[in-house]
Write a structure and sequence with these properties.
Blueprint lengths: L1 H15 L12 E6 L5 H16 L3 E6 L4 H14 L3 E4 L8 H9 L4 E4 L13 E5 L1 H16 L4 E7 L5 H14 L5 E8 L4 H14 L8 E4 L2 H13 L9 E6 L2 H8 L5 E4 L5 H14 L6 E4 L3 E3 L4 H7 L6
Parallel strand pairs: 1-2, 1-3, 3-4, 4-5, 5-11, 6-7, 6-8, 8-9, 9-10
Antiparallel strand pairs: 10-12
Helix pairs in contact: 3-4, 5-6, 7-8, 9-11
The structure holds beta-D-fucofuranose.
Main location: other
Subcellular location: Cell envelope
Keywords: Signal
Length: 323
């Protein structure tokens, strides 16, 4: 009974997306609304997306929104007007997408979300989302810190990602859950560094100033490595020893965090692959060619790396991953 129902639902969904239209699986024209290049990871995602499109003979129309949602919405409308075959969106924040994604749906243009999610009541506004489990990433980070500090009292400062973005919301949630049972670990300051090195450095400077020159800080949790790299700079300029006096845990596993680990200035990171476009293009090709409905969420892996994992070897290996 269940199978029939899900088959019916899939067919209905496929129909409303116009899967009955025949498309050439390759030589698709795909519009990509990218957030910007706020971090090394985001730049790598763009590189990989362009490379994967080329490999698949996909005509990619790329738009850089410079971190602004209104630029993303404008780009999506332009893609719709151009009659592209599909649209990729990395949504800068979770909300405010219903209207423009409804326009894409009405134009029978499938949308795939990359690396971030949206919050909407209407579940059929996108074909699938290719993202990591960001709550899990925060939990992996928190679990590492709980193990690293043992029963020692530990005051943590947190550098949050972009306000209102799914990774910032979810990575905070997961980390808070992981440390909730450890009464000796407390987040004493938490502020957005907007996923950038510059803002991460600036906010960390203010934390150091507010916490007796950093003496009150036992660890930094940053929602991405780029903010951590900025924070490491701030700690060193204040005469502190990041990775030693103050533990560091962040997310993305970009090459430069492994260089910091090799120098004894960083402790751990949770890996996020920059290759979200490969699975997205594969799902789109199957959908266009055969009407195959992908799973609503294509989840990417999250692996913990620490300074014990031969950081320079990992650093070298990152060159093939779009960095
Ligand atoms: O961690 C960060 C980028 O959306 C999960 O965005 C992505 C995050 C990533 O700015 O480096």
């Amino acid at each position: 009974m269940k199978t029939t129902l899900s088959l019916l639902a899939a067919t209905a969904l496929a129909f409303c997306w116009g899967a009955n239209t025949t498309y050439a699986a390759d030589h698709m024209t795909v519009g990509f609304s990218q957030i910007g290049s706020e971090s090394g990871w985001r730049a790598a995602e763009t590189t990989v997306t362009k490379r994967e499109a080329e490999k698949r003979h996909i005509n990619l129309k790329f738009s850089d929104a410079q971190q602004k949602q209104e630029n993303q919405i404008r780009a999506i409308r332009s893609f719709i007007a151009q009659g592209v075959d599909a649209i990729l969106v990395a949504p800068v924040v979770e909300t405010g997408w219903d209207a423009v994604l409804q326009e894409a749906k009405d134009a029978k243009i499938p949308v795939v979300l990359l690396d971030r999610n949206i919050r909407t009541e209407k579940k059929d506004l996108y074909l699938t989302a290719v993202t990591s489990d960001q709550v899990h990433e925060g939990k992996v980070a928190g679990d590492w810190l709980v193990k690293a500090v043992g029963s020692k009292a530990c005051n943590v400062v947190e550098l949050q990602g972009t306000t209102g973005s799914s990774p910032a919301i979810n990575r905070k949630k997961g980390f808070d859950e992981a440390i909730s049972a450890a009464k000796n670990i407390k987040i004493i300051r938490s502020q957005t560094g907007d996923f950038t090195r510059a803002k991460g450095k600036e906010v960390m400077e203010s934390f150091i100033k507010a916490e007796n020159g950093g003496k009150g800080i036992c660890a930094v949790y940053a929602h991405n490595d780029d903010m951590m790299i900025g924070a490491i700079q701030a700690m060193k300029e204040a005469g502190l020893k990041p990775g030693k006096d103050i533990l560091t845990i962040s997310i993305d596993a970009v090459p430069d965090i492994f260089k910091a680990m090799a120098a004894g200035e960083a402790n751990a990171t949770v890996e996020l692959t920059p290759d979200m476009a490969g699975p997205a293009f594969d799902a789109l090709a199957a959908y266009k060619a055969k009407g195959t409905m992908p799973k609503p969420w294509i989840q990417t892996e999250s692996k913990l790396y620490t300074a014990k994992d031969d950081p320079m070897k990992v650093y070298e290996s990152k060159k093939d991953l779009g960095y």
